[in-house]
Fold this protein.
Amino acid sequence: MQIVGSAALNRLAPFGELTLYENRPNSHEEKLARAQDAEVIINSRSAVTWRRMELEKLPKLRMITTCSIGTDMIDLDAATEHGVVVSNQPGRTAPAVAEHMFGLMFAVAKRAAFQTAELKAGRWTRRLNVGLQGKTLGVIGTGAVGAEMARLASALGMRVIAWSYHPSAERSAALGVTYVRFDELLATADVISLHVKLTDDSHHLIDAAALAKMKDEAILLNGARGDVVDMDALHAALTAGRLNGVGLDVFPEEPLPGDAPILSCDQVVLTPHAADWTAEATELLNEGAVDNVIAFLEGQPQNVVTG
């Protein structure tokens, strides 16, 4: 996210000195040097990580706020041990993220990337597209983004089923979805959209065994975190001709390496962790980060995930 130039930063003026860096650090040493005297860090890019070995070298640090929902770029256990409060922004840009993932679903179903590449190469290659109305969307993870994904799909005329680590009748009624067993969702859904947090339990939640249970013509979307999917298993499935296609906004390694095997697959639509990269969503996150900092400095921390 780009917070430099945001008017929201003006609200921090009464609270102390603000130093801005437009570009991510080029090295571990540069990152530590930038943060050496900081009491508060606004972490505006998820690619910039704060692990135990770094937090141990920042004795003045008291608080980190992310410009995101996810906090996997920060070692939360180490932050707690060192008395560093970590705040995120749960659900703040859920509509933007869901809109993006919905767009990826359409791009995959209509083979937009493949057919554009074929036309640019001078080939008139037509393949059967996928109709979505009346099909079943399986939402894995029904937090703010998953809930918005379900709402959009219902408006399109899709049937929505869901799986969550913590399903409830109340949540089912509120979202208008049916919770089913994980294996049932994999076998039933025409489109599967991932929106779970990355934890030890969700790491490689979609592995070779899960992929084998999906319909051969299913579409898989990942708007969660890259490591929720076993990318080697996904590449193998696509290479074997399984799945109608895949839409990915997140990857285990970001930026995505130029030699990543997934890039060799035809029926994929890929975006660079840009689901909430709109002017509106960016400013929402900028404002939320500033809100978190001010709340902390005023002695009333909010959106605290540790500390």
